[in-house]
Design a protein that fits this description.
The chain is an alpha+beta fold. The chain contains 3 helices and 4 strands, in the order βαβββαα. A 4-stranded mixed sheet has the order 1-2-3-4. Strand 3 and strand 4 form a beta hairpin. Helix 1 packs across helix 3. The longest helix is centred in the C-terminal third of the chain and has 28 residues. 25% of the residues are buried.
């Protein structure tokens, strides 16, 4: 299948665009086929980000007292016709300053952590097609 990151919504700062660009770059680096355009993609990935404030917590391993946010990301895989193939979720706790404006390397860290899940979704898709083949 040709993959494409169709959309990312709900992120703060430049997170929507940063996550979309980072995910496509990480998919390419992993050797997965990425479509030249979203119209050519046979599997379209949609990201939905929910940001919530974490009160009274300090990021593990950090000396900063900066407020924390919890990122819940749902990656939805759809066929070209819109049919859902699979869903993958991620949860991360970050310092608010990391997501207020520019996500930078954080977007790459998040999407790099998602690659194993992408491979699982694609394997499941292949197994389902093998079962339904005549």
């Amino acid at each position: 299948p040709l993959l494409g990151v169709a959309s990312v919504t709900g992120a703060t700062g430049d997170g929507n665009k940063s996550l979309q660009r980072a995910f496509e770059a990480v998919l390419r680096r992993a050797g997965l086929p990425v479509a030249a355009s979203i119209d050519a993609a046979t599997v379209r990935i949609h990201g939905v980000v929910t940001v919530s404030e974490v009160s009274g917590s300090k990021l593990e391993g950090s000396d900063s007292n900066e407020p924390q946010s919890r990122l819940d990301i749902k990656w939805i895989f759809r066929q070209k016709d819109g049919a859902e193939i699979g869903v993958m979720t991620q949860t991360n706790t970050v310092q608010n300053g990391q997501i207020a404006t520019r996500w930078g390397g954080l977007a790459y860290d998040i999407t790099l952590a998602a690659i194993d899940g992408v491979l699982r979704v694609l394997r499941t898709m292949d197994e389902a097609r093998a079962i339904t083949r005549p």
